[in-house]
Amino acid sequence: xxxxxxxxxxxxxxxxxxxxxxxxxxxxxxxxxxxxxxxxxxxxxxxxxxxxxxxxxxxxxxxxxxxxxxxxxxxxxxxxxxxxxxxxxxxxxxxxxxxxxxxxxxxxxxxxxxxxxxxxxxxxxxxxxxxxxxxxxxxxxxxxxxxxxxxxxxxxxxxxxxxxxxxxxxxxxxxxxxxxxxxxxxxxxxxxxxxxxxxxxxxxxxxxxxxxxxxxxxxx
Length: 220
What we know:
By secondary structure, the chain is of the alpha+beta class. 52% of the residues lie in helices and 10% in strands. It contains seven helices and seven strands, in the order βββαβααβββαααα. Helix 1 crosses helix 3, helix 2 packs across helix 3 and helix 4 runs antiparallel to helix 5. 29% of the residues are buried.
């Protein structure tokens, strides 16, 4: 039997902000249930890795009886096969994975610097009934934050070099949303305001930052 090989990542998964899956043509792929989409996200973050079925059922269906949880997992895998490709899902008796090359995930390219960052990892994507998934999401946010910060700083530096201070300000404001006390963020905002001749708002931004430092850290 000939194995189907994906053509240069058939799908794009955005996780840095509100999550979405799109085909190479830009069409959004929608899932009827959040848990099925969450299953794809978990598999796609580590392509090629084999996850035990027990791990995945505990992650997304922690309160369900084992038989029902396994049935829900099987349904979720069937949905992913239908939405992405049958060949993309690696299934063995006790393990499940997503074959590399089918789904390109933005969070895996933070080191490249050329990644759009719209917000925190899986922003607004909550599954209150799946506490283990929520815990995993928070762990990912904490782990990715330094990489996101570095990526935004590199993007600000690149824009600064060509005098694109509108982009410097946008990236700085995004960094402030994610890390309100980031020094690189306030510097970028002040720089952009000063470059635009808006000295007053540059100073106001600094005053707000100064007050925040004093209130939250007791620092100058």
